[in-house]
Fold:
Amino acid sequence: MGKLLGDQAADQIIQLIIDNDGKAGDKMPNEYELAEQLNVSRSTVREAIKALVSRNILEIKRGSGTFISEKCGISDDPLGLMFVKNKLKLATDLLEIRFMIEPKIASLAAANATDEEIREIEVLCDKVEQLILNNQPHMDVDIEFHGAIARSSKNIVIANLIPIINKSISLCIDVTDRQLAKETIETHKEVLNCIKSRDINGAYDAMYLHLVYNRRNIKKLIEIKNNETHLDI
Amino acid sequence: MGKLLGDQAADQIIQLIIDNDGKAGDKMPNEYELAEQLNVSRSTVREAIKALVSRNILEIKRGSGTFISEKCGISDDPLGLMFVKNKLKLATDLLEIRFMIEPKIASLAAANATDEEIREIEVLCDKVEQLILNNQPHMDVDIEFHGAIARSSKNIVIANLIPIINKSISLCIDVTDRQLAKETIETHKEVLNCIKSRDINGAYDAMYLHLVYNRRNIKKLIEIKNNETHLDI
Structure:
């Protein structure tokens, strides 16, 4: 019974956020105020907040209050891939989706990116290059680079979807293979330059090429893994 | 402090499911057994289970116990679209992703579907037709039809992604417009027949055509909506 009340209160809090045009990072009213606004007990509010925190919709910062989460309600495993055992097959399938989406996105970015967005993509492109040249982990910034391109496509779903896919790939496979360093730097730059010069087909092709290098890399990793398995037997 | 313990226990329960090859619908050990296995208190287990229920990983069936959820941890709003205000723009962007993915998926289904999967697609195709002809809501079965095609592509991510996208579209727009009934029945059949005859390009084209009708329909709805807004002023 308490659970049902908590769920109802959670729905009411979500509606409250929508009605108030809430954005990631906004502070929520405190427990007392919420209980009063929703006309429920404080323990029900607490239960609702806990559930919304589990769902990455709210975030509690100790000592300063409850906030709308930067994760926008996107769970740590939004596509339900946690229980897939074969991580190499998973990485291959995720990359197959990137092939379907990302070249088209690069075209859309070449058509729609604002000057400010292009500057952001350029900064991230440089950062990835520096990290690779300094032998430092570049995966997070790499994901940001592709995310920035996705955002500048102006498709609001793609902007959320691409980081999800890329983070999933980085979780299942070590794609930071040194072999790919040169190709990554070069094809990232090509994508950037085509977006800059509003070259829709060029951006498509450059992104496609970038993915081809990635697919070859994954294939190589799978071959190595298969050979290891054979050796085990 | 309690929260942190609950989170840790939640992670341990997830690991337990992975280690035991847990599948949707499997029954979980009871509270006492879990507390013993994880070496934590029963109240910590209860807290962890609550969080996992909020995350659609577990499901409590009153009187019979706790089970692995059929939702496989996929939240009700996996792509974080809850707070997007402009639902027509959202529907358009979701459909744009279907254009990037679904024709290719239909090709993969034509190449990879088993005979059993083809029979399932056929049954769903017939069901959608019957519902449309009887003037009954067909959206849920329609989503199942596209989901079955996605599964038979053998890309494990696509199988989860397509229902997410299609459910999202049905939430933001009423795509059950009677105008589309004839086109839906026809293009669904074309997709099915091409998958049956292993016609990779035909399946691609038929799915593309299906999406074209959907895009025209959304455009029409947007025009109507825009006209209404003008009248309001």
